[in-house]
Here is the input.
Amino acid sequence: MPWELTAIKYDGAPPQYTREIDPARQLPLGPCDTVREWISSALPEITWSREPSLAETSCRLGMELPDCWDEDTRRLAAMSKWRGQFESENLFVETYGLYDGADIRSFEIEVRGTADPIPCLQKLCEKPKWTLAEVGKDGQCLEFDSNASRRWNEFRNWVEDAVDHLQSDDSE
Here is the structure.
C-alpha cells in the first residue's frame, strides 16, 4: 500500500490539513516539460515512460468517453501522460498525473518501501518550492522541518498494523 501524496504550489503558508487547502491559493507548477525537468534534476535516476491517453485506451477497449464530461475533462483525456519511477534501496517513488503539453497544477506521488523517503521528497520539492499534501480526508500538508518524518512513521505503523491484523485474521 503506497503513501499517496499530491505535489502543489501554494500562495503563502499551506494549511495543516489537506481538506483546508484553498484552490484559489493554489498556483500552477508550470508546463509539463518544465515540471519533468525539475523532477529529473532533483532525482537524476528517475526513469520516464509515456502512457497513452485515456481516450486512446478507451478506444482500444471499444469504450467511449462519458457524454457528461465537460470540455476541459475531454481535453485532458485526449493527452498522453508521463509516469516517472525512481528506485533506490528499499524505496520506490512513482509520479503520475503529468499530462503532456498541459500546464500542471498538481501531480501525484506514490511512495512504497521501508526506507525513509523524506530526504528524497525534500530534494524534489526544495527548488521549485512545492508543497506535498497527503491524499485523504485527514491528510496533512507536509513540512519537512516539522511533521514530514512523523507522518511517514505514522503511515508505516498504520500499514504494519493493518498487515498484522490481516495475518492474524488469516490464521484464525
User: Anything to note?
Assistant: The chain has one domain: 3-171. The two ends are 23 Å apart (CA to CA). Residues 149 and 171 are 33 Å apart (CA to CA). The chain is about 35% helix and 25% strand.
